[in-house]
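Here is this case:
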Amino acid sequence: METVLAFDFGLKRIGVAVGNTLLRQAQPLTVITVATNDARFAEIGALVEAWRPARCVVGLPLHPDGAEHEMTVRCRRFANQINGRFGVPTVLVDERYSSAVLGQRRGEIVDDEAAAIILQQYFNDYAES
């Protein structure tokens, strides 16, 4: 059994979810809301230390036709930074339709739930049985 952390990267917030390869069920964990890059990676480092994931999953935003955009590049960089800073293999998962299933109300923060959807998609589509 391996633990997996997932991230829904955003410029203001980063949603985090956790799951494992035995149960293959994602659970929302937390939302990182600190402003500076150093503070963000300090919080991520604390999560990596606490959960000791075998890998991390990062949602990869794309246009509906699959074309990349500015946030795609930022998410790739974020995934590379997780791998480089913490030595944890990182997988990118297409997140194009993950937010469509969230019934978000105005002002509600659902980034951790979005991360759980991304992680569940990883378990369903990418992780080995």
